[in-house]
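Listing S7. Sequence submitted for prediction.
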Amino acid sequence: MSPSSPESDFGVKPLPSLKRMTTVTPQEIGLDLGAWEIFQHPRFLEIYASHYGWGVVAHHGVLIFARTVPGLGLMRTQVYSPEAGAGSDWHRILSDLPTGRIEVMTNRPAPEAVAMPTSPRDLHSMIIDLRPGAGELFAGFESRTRKAIRRAEREGMTVRLAQNEHDLERFHTVLLRVTRGGTVYQAPDLALLRAIMHAGFSRLYLALHGGEVVGGIFVLANRYAHGFVSAFDPQACGGLPGNLLYWGVIQGEIAAGVPFLDLGAQSLSQQPGLTMAKRSFSPYLVPAYRYEVAPSAWRAKLGDMLRGLKRSKATAPPAPTKATEERD
């Protein structure tokens, strides 16, 4: 979902400046549970997986999305922030989970002797440490970001929490308009967002201008906050920038007592536009890793054959990180 950015004369996208961003390990800032820790919450995972017709299994203390075929067992599995369930030993699931294929997203790398990541080397979670407070964070924003926030406030834009299901529907209307029905980037179903909201695992922040909803950010809320999906329509508010919306989320999550806000993960070089947009809020860069392993070769081969016969958007839950990164 990153904005387009000019390429060099050699056809290679320039690497954005990393000024105002510091690369840290999870241990250095206390992000012990990983950016996707909410996907290790049993009730949340049940809601999320069931929406796509998948199940949930526990293995070595880690909760896993699972697609099971009767008589054949586990065919495809996905897991996010396994360190929240099993700590540094999470990588044991890669070797003895009886599944055809497993995809893992984590901020804690597995030993190279166990598996090598398939993600780009510069894949990072972009994390805002909310503990310093609103004043210190605002002072650390880029000057252009502070000016954009003040401009939006002067011209009447406001940000507030959603109050009811009607607010959710208004946000989803904007989301579908901005994404052209989910073709620009993924737009989760309204039914899924509604189920998450009713279970108390989210906070929806709305940007309003002239009484109309012009944008919003749907935040997954547990021990940390995870930006799940967002949309902003500058054409609906006279071309105003959307920085105030993110500032409203930051202030709201501080008020909720949340220590970290995850803005999502992306490759810094492959998605320079998105990196530049998030850089303005001075986040930490926390290395992120994707692993794709086939512990059971015959299940993997059979699963590939079955997927070839039945291509459907409902076949697999989308990776949570891809709500805030470009699709492959």
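Caption to Listing S7: primary sequence and predicted structure tokens for the chain studied. The first helix runs from residue 26 to 29. The radius of gyration is 20 Å.
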